[in-house]
Amino acid sequence: MKKANSDEVSHRNSVPILAWDFHYEYLNELKNIFNDLKKVNKISNQFTWDQKNLDIEQRIKEEVVVVTDLNLKIVFASNGIRRMTGYKEEEVLGKTPKIFQGPTTCKTDLEEIREAIKLQIPFEKTIQNYRKDGRTYQCKINGAPVFNLKGKLTHFIAFEKEVLSA
């Protein structure tokens, strides 16, 4: 009878291995978000960004964040870039967002994005992008110019997420 009792106690105190896997993934995701925030805050502090309308801390949890310099070279991409595109951050740094575009990306949409960048105004577009393996996906981009506290343009930021079709 005692043996049954000890088995019962051990089952109550055990956690299925699968639960640990989920816990580990969650902790890794939190670590990645924290590291992403640290990197983007370093850029922000270096260039004294006016962050009041950017809401980076909240949006970085749900969306991919891409920051480019004034020449549109990528200087930061959050960890989610790999899940969405197949590219690691190191592979996109120094490249332009054209790395994600291909033959079926709408030229009109790209022209409208270029015009918004030239006029230094925010934009929102959903375009067809390409993953590293060549597969396409619909990408909703919410882009904006980033100004420093003196009002000088320093970067462009894009919050991106894959639009899943029904």
UniProtKB/TrEMBL annotation:
Pfam families according to UniProt: PAS_9
Domain (PAS) spans 65-96
Keywords of the record: Chromophore, Flavoprotein, FMN
Checking SUPFAM superfamilies in the record gives:
PYP-like sensor domain (PAS domain)
Give the domain of life: Bacteria
Entry keyword annotation includes Ubl conjugation: no
InterPro entries with a match to the protein in the record: PAS, PAS-like_dom_sf
Q: Which PANTHER family match?
A: PROTEIN TWIN LOV 1
- The protein's name in its UniProt record: PAS domain-containing protein
